[in-house]
Design goal:
Strand content: over 45%
Protein name: Wd-40 repeat-containing protein
Number of helices: 3
Strand order of the largest sheet: 1-10-9-8-7
Distance between the termini: 57 Å
InterPro entries: WD40/YVTN_repeat-like_dom_sf (IPR015943), WD40_repeat_dom_sf (IPR036322), WD40_rpt (IPR001680)
CATH architecture of one domain: 7 Propeller
CATH superfamily of one domain: YVTN repeat-like/Quinoprotein amine dehydrogenase
Largest sheet: 5 strands, mixed
Number of strands: 29
Shape: globular
CATH class of one domain: Mainly Beta
Subcellular location: Nucleus, Nucleolus
GO biological process, one term: positive regulation of transcription by RNA polymerase I
Main location: nucleus
Oligomer: single chain
Structural class: mainly beta
Helix content: under 10%
CATH topology of one domain: Methylamine Dehydrogenase, Chain H
Amino acid sequence: MGCYNTKLQKTGLTSSAYKYGIDTYLDQNLNSQYSENQESDKSIQSLNGGTRASTAISLSTVDVKSKRSIFKLQKVRELITLPNGHQNQVKQILKMDQNRLLSIGNDCQIIIWDMITMTKLYALDTKQSVYLACVIPNRLLIGILGQNRDKLYAWNIQGQFKSNATELVDSLKLNRMVKSLINLEFTNNRFFCVGYQTGELSIFDNTNMEIAEEVQFFQHPLDILVESKENIKLKSCIIGASRKSQTIRLVSYRNNTETIVDVGQIKVRSNVCNLHELRDLNIAVALQNGDVEIWNILKSNAPQRTLKSFDNIITKVVSLELGQILMGVTKDARFMFWKIFNGQPILQSDYPVHTKKVTGVIVHGDKIFTSSHDSSIRATSLIYKY
């Protein structure tokens, strides 16, 4: 408890991706690695099997979607502000499982919510402000605390979140400020990933809270980390970006050998604000110049298309309807929607969903949950024409 990290490896990334090209690298490395782990499933060998539907959509929602035109989105309607919530800014919301979300407030509270009933289930008083968190399903909640964002805490969240089921099980004092934090599902939730102010990336083993591997990822703060989940050929890939840079970098973590291999990079046209992985080896990148670009990682010389945001800066991007619609949240907390395949705008909300900056977005069927610095978490419904 309270120990300092001593395992710091200043290793560089390999150049194999640049030597052979990203597409060759994916074919020879990532696809072969995934095939070794999934020999029984022959369909994943082909590119046609290279995408998978998001697990965020329930079967009942899919049944409803089959009866409507998904591109006839008519309006958004605010449903409810979740009651008995935070007393101060909400910094982050995370999806815990199919029906629960977790929120982190500036009031030293972590709250578990039911997304079906939209009610509060449990609150954890952390005694200190939590800046970032990630969830190791059914086992741990990892949080970054401290004024310098350099304390890593792990809580046991097994059971039904009763007072005796959530306990501090480990803590670690880091020697750098943390800027980003994600769990790595492709490692069977054994490892999680940390990005630092100094640009390094560390892979932690959550069984002993030790660093398994570390590399210098950027020379800028590593603000954004995304685990690839939508594309089989990107299995084991981590996508990273800095808000002070125009570069997006992809690396692969091989947990069997505990090594990080470079996959490639994309150079966008403005500094990155946010990014979201899409199907078919695409990513959506919200830029600080107000544009949203769709990039295919196999064709990293130019974007597939550019989505205009009508002079609004897009701060968050997520996909809806099994990856067919892209939703952006503007700087003034409005929603915008586009068709992903051609970039055509569908709808822009008439009013802001919050009075201050939106800090998190979770899609749950036809409901969208958003958190904000105005201390609220709100549920908004999407209204379609049938």
